[in-house]
Amino acid sequence: MTDTMLAMQALAQGDVRLTEVPVPTPSDGQALVKMELASICGSDLHIVDYGWLVEEYPLRPGYPGHEGIGTVVDANGTELNDGDRVLVTPAIWDSLCFAEYQALGTNFLTVLPDASDQQPDHLLMAQQLGTVIFAAKRLPNLLGQTCVVMGQGSAGLFWNYVLKHLGADRVIAIEPVAHRLAVGAGFGSDERIGETFAAATRRVLDLTGEGADVVVEAIGTTETHGQALELVRPDGQIVWFGVPKGPDPIPFDFDTFFRKRIAAYSPLGAQDELELSSFRQALKWIDDGLIDMSEVVTHSFPLSRVDEAFQAARGREDGAVKIVITMG
Question: What average pLDDT does this structure show over 251-263?
Answer without folding.
Answer: 97
